Amino acid sequence: MPGTQLARARAGEVTPAMKRVADRENREPEFVREQVAEGQAVIPANHGHDALDPMIIGREFATKVNANIGNSETTSDLAGELEKLHAAVHYGADTVMDLSTGSNLDEIREANVAHSPVPVGTVPIYEAVTQVDDVADLTPELLLDVIEKQAEQGVDYQTIHAGVLAEHLPLTDGRKTGIVSRGGSILAQWMEENGEQNPLYTHFEDICEIFAEHDVTFSLGDGLRPGSLADASDDAQFAELDTLGELTRVAWDHDVQVMVEGPGHVPMDEVADNVERQQEVCDGAPFYLLGPLVTDVAPGYDHITSAIGATEAARAGAAMLCYVTPKEHLGLPEAEDVRDGLAAYRIAAHAGDVAAGKPGARDWDDALSEARYQFDWRRQFDLALDPERARDFHDQTLPGDNYKEARFCSMCGVEFCSMRIDQDARDADGEMEAIDDETDLSESAAAEVNLPPTGSHDTSDVPDLPEGVEPVHGDEADGESATGDD
Ligand code: SF4
């Protein structure tokens, strides 16, 4: 097998994956290679993931969005899982995490990898726990076996909660919401009952060897992330972050790619500090945030509370954002929740990129604004982040084809359309000219990442569903808790 993308970048090779990424982001292949070689970006691309269209995660590139999919003990079969994958990619997920904890785990994981054009991530401790009667019965050997099997199945990145150490656990005493990460709580229980150090920490170099062989990327889990504003930025969170910095360097010594996960629940004024601290402690390894929610008071709207924090995180240098749906803290998301969560997060990622001045990010906004001012409704729909919703909302009141050239919509009405009035005023005195040029997105510095769905695939690239699998239209499509505090 060839080496990892990191090993090959360090050796000076521009791999086919780096070239593809450079095309997608309209960057120089050599720049991509340098970013990967320095650990500042990752290309999660397991050697066994044949369906993958390579993408890159790093603060110098368009901010990416992950969607969680996967079954639970009570829901979903293989066809249902493939429907969720299809929906997530269709609505613009840049990666998906299969967080299945129910039955048929191998079959579902292998099918997801076989069909997914985007990287697939997992949390292997979830599967390991299903194989024992009691958490305390987990062994290092079982954990390594599960990790290796999932690597062999083609998983591109795995969340490994190796930074939760026994000495960190007392630091969570007195928290308002304790340990809210599933992986973190499982490992804390194991350490308490066995009186030993976290086996993912003590066997970290064994995991590195497995990952190096298959080119699996670490997503170093933040098992002690805060589950409430009250617990944000506390000693437990930052003690674990220091360990994640240490583990980042160990993984790099093994030529293994690394990104680092972050919180969770963080007040708005602390979000940028959290990003900057991670970048410093982890030597610039890509930061992958789970939200963060900037207030705890809006269950039912946590795709919004967290997208606000995610926007600030993206502006400050986060590389990937894990979406949150409106059902967070309340129940399993359905298809429409997945759509709303992805839209909220793609808005956050793009708004953060615009604010950060990423090359070409604003071109998309400018192109849509030009179409809007020209009353080019079809182009406005095509450029919209969710073209189907934009068209549907417009056509609810003005469905006729003739309204696709109309110089108004039903919001202000024909008499009060300010853009029409403005244009007429400008034509009358001859001094103010209407915009008549169009931003050419194909020439934009952000190229493909400027086209909806953001940073990912045009709808036409989404693989056809296997025979017998119907597309999702309102059926259950449960994702998983991003903030983990449920
Ligand atoms: S009617 Fe109002 S909302 Fe609609 S196009 Fe004109 S200015 Fe915009």
Give the helices and strands as they follow along the chain.
Answer: HHHEEEHEHEHHEHHHEHEHEHEHHHHHH
Number of domains: 2
Q: Uncertain regions: pLDDT < 50 for 5+ in a row?
A: 454-461, 472-486
Mean of residue pLDDT?
90
Instruction: Give me the side-by-side strand order of the main sheet.
Output: 3-4-5-6-7-8-9-10
Strand count, sense and closure of the main sheet? 8 strands, parallel, barrel
> Which homologous superfamily in CATH is the superfamily of the largest domain?
Radical SAM ThiC family, central domain
CATH topology of the largest domain: TIM Barrel
What's the short version?
By secondary structure, this protein is an alpha/beta fold. Helices cover 44% and strands 8% of the residues.
Quickly list its features.
single chain, 486 residues, alpha/beta, TIM Barrel, two-stranded antiparallel sheet, 19 helices, 10 strands, globular, disordered C terminus, binds iron/sulfur cluster
Give a structural overview:
The protein is an alpha/beta fold. The chain folds into two domains: 62-356, Alpha-Beta Barrel (TIM Barrel); 361-444, no CATH class. Helix content is 44%, strand content 8%. It has helices at 5-10, 16-25, 29-37, 78-90, 105-115, 124-130, 140-152, 182-194, 199-202, 204-214, 235-253, 268-281, 302-316, 335-356, 361-373, 377-383, 387-397, 413-416, 418-429; strands spanning 41-42, 57-58, 64-69, 95-98, 120-122, 157-160, 217-220, 258-262, 287-290, 320-322. Helix 2 (16-25) crosses helix 3 and helix 7 (140-152) packs parallel to helix 10 (204-214). It is globular and about 80 Å long. It binds iron/sulfur cluster. Iron/sulfur cluster binds next to helix 19.
